[in-house]
Amino acid sequence: MRADPCYILHAMRIDDETLAARAKDGDERAFEELALRYAKRLYAFCRARLGSDEDAKDAAQDALVRAYRSLPSYDSSKPWSAWLFSIAANRVKSRYAASASAERLAVKAAAERAIADEAVAEGSGPEAEALRALAAEELRSAVAGLPASLRSPVELYYFAGLDVASTAAALGLGLEAVKSRLLRARRRLGRILGDTAQPDGR
Amino acid sequence: MDDRRVEIRKAALRMLDERDGLGGSSPVPPEALPFGDDEAGRAVVGRAMAALRSMDGVGSGYEGRAAKLRGSRIAWLAAAAALVAVASSALTLAFVRRGSPAEVRFVLEAPDATSVWLAADFNDWSPSGYELEKAPDGTWSITVRLRRGASYSYNFVIDGERWVADPAAPSGLDDGLGGVCSSLSL
Fold first, then answer.
1. Which residue among B19, B159, B178 places its CB closest to the CB of A148?
2. Which domain holds residue A129?
3. Longest alpha-carbon distance in chain B
């Protein structure tokens, strides 16, 4: 049986930038492997910003398609993750920002919390998993209330799981600026989520 | 606040702590991402690759795509050359010709850059096909045909990774992501 070329690329663990250079030369399998490596992060990032599962899938798909079509502009000496997420951030901005108003996000978060609560009440899933899903929604809702300058680093660092350097590069910011924003955001989130006296944490 | 909500908020804080505990110098391994969803990720890749195959004929051979890219690039360069030939001003956003549609010249001074691209809402924020040409004095420019009576947002992409607003643009907008994009109304 012939091994799937994508599996071979995965097993060899070729670095992102080499794969991206191959993709730029027209190697579709290399691009697919890169997409698989980053799809979960992309989805998590888009989900954090857009608040809906379907919107997040659409946006993440859109970012991958756009990345593929923009490969001629990619410089393979630069980090792939930062490049990909700068496209994702701009895709979210361009196509979805208007519809992802704070009000809409709050309504969605509330609706998803209600669904998750129902799941717990009905005992349809393991308690720990359900609590995690509710906590993730709570966190998304808290992050949606942050100023844009703090929100984007949080979405890339905490939700997409990028390192600080890639977060900075994706946002076109310096390392120190991102560290400072992350610290400020973390403090604010700590206050919002740690304040249990008011429903909104204010 | 009821006990359940308090418990949820504490769990949310623990998720942040887990990320902080991994340190900022390396990415979180995909399997440890607290907010990810493997199934959703796979679905996204499947949908993206299907969309690409239907749009570009991806999968019919790499050579085919490479040839297509070369072809579109040559076509673009020819078009760009024609537009640049009629450009008469080096001023940012100078109108080359009155009427509708309008031809707009975007100019950026970036002598140290190795490449500059234009990403805007009129090209769906995809810089592909919108590479600026460098002049001997270190300025980069591209002329784009746009419609009058509309507003546009744009950024320059330097060396394929730095998204910057136009320093000479009449106005800038908060891009909703902590950055600024330039705005232009025709």
1. B178
2. 106-193
3. 71
Using a cut of 0.80, tell me whether the model's pTM lies above it. Answer: no
> Who among A64, A75, A196 is closest to B6 (CB)?
A196
Assign residue A155 the CATH number of its domain.
1.10.10.10
Q: Are residues A111 and A137 in the same domain?
A: yes
Contacts across the A-B interface (CB distance below 8 Å) = 235
Measured over the CA atoms of residue B87, residue B93, residue B97 and residue B100, the dihedral's sign is positive
Tens digit of pLDDT at every position of chain A (202 positions): 344 444 444 545 788 999 999 998 888 889 999 999 999 999 999 888 887 788 888 889 888 988 888 888 888 888 899 889 988 887 776 555 445 444 444 555 555 555 445 444 444 455 777 788 888 888 988 998 898 889 989 999 999 999 999 999 888 888 888 999 999 999 999 999 986 544 443 3
> Given the DSSP bridges, would you call strands B133-134 and B180-185 parallel, antiparallel or unpaired?
unpaired
For residues B155 and B157, give the distance between their C-alpha atoms in angstroms, rounded to a whole number: 6
Residues A66 and A114 in one domain: no
Residue A55 included in any domain: yes
